Amino acid sequence: MTGSTSTPTAGDSGTLLWHEGDMPYSAAFGDHFYCQTDGRLECGHVFLSGNALPSRWETDGLFRIGELGFGTGLNACETWRQWKLTRRPGGVLHFVSFELYPMSASDLSRALSRWPEIDAEREALAALWPSEPGGTIDIALDEATRLTVVCGDALASVTGTDLAFDAWYLDGFAPSRNSAMWSAELMNAVFATTVEGGTFATYAAAGFVRRNLIAAGFEVERRKGFAGKREMLCGVKPVRSGA
């Protein structure tokens, strides 16, 4: 963890702390919101590459990404940035995230300001973000990009959705800090809402997470993690024979 120049921000999420270098830290879960090395590059290595993106969305039609843990919106902004660079005419991206404790617009902007590469996306997100985030936040980021953030318990929200997902970013706080975000029940719900041939990726490599994903029905692969982390996980929902 970084040193102690922490400034608390009160809100529905309990206490949001700011460590050195404007690094957001959740007091509720005892963990940072993103990789201390470089969260934006981690997003590319883990979530985009782990789901074979952008190549899979370089077609016409709708591509839907599900995310467990919106946090600062970093994954959404970096994905949007790469989507704008590679999308084809007729393509639509729907990024759907499930978040228990949504940040304020000012906190989102502060947390994302360390990356000039996503300044345009950060400013747009902060401008469109509701003053009192809660419920279901639905934002048209541009003519071909939609962001939906479902606020509340992840298991109830994912179980209750009627959406189908082409790819998942599993990005809750570390399994040791927030085991409910990696439970067998939630992994089953993620699997149930994934299209056949759909994928997931996560920085997490804990044994119980891998076992829960396999038990849910995913074919799971270990890959090299980001920034010295030994492993990460990614996988696919098998296509039924004859389907």
Automatic annotation (TrEMBL):
It comes from the Bacteria. One of its GO terms (biological process) is methylation. Signal peptide: none annotated. Residues 117-238 form the MnmC-like methyltransferase domain. GO terms for molecular function: oxidoreductase activity, acting on the CH-NH group of donors; tRNA (5-methylaminomethyl-2-thiouridylate)(34)-methyltransferase activity. Keywords: Methyltransferase, Transferase. This is 5-methylaminomethyl-2-thiouridine methyltransferase.
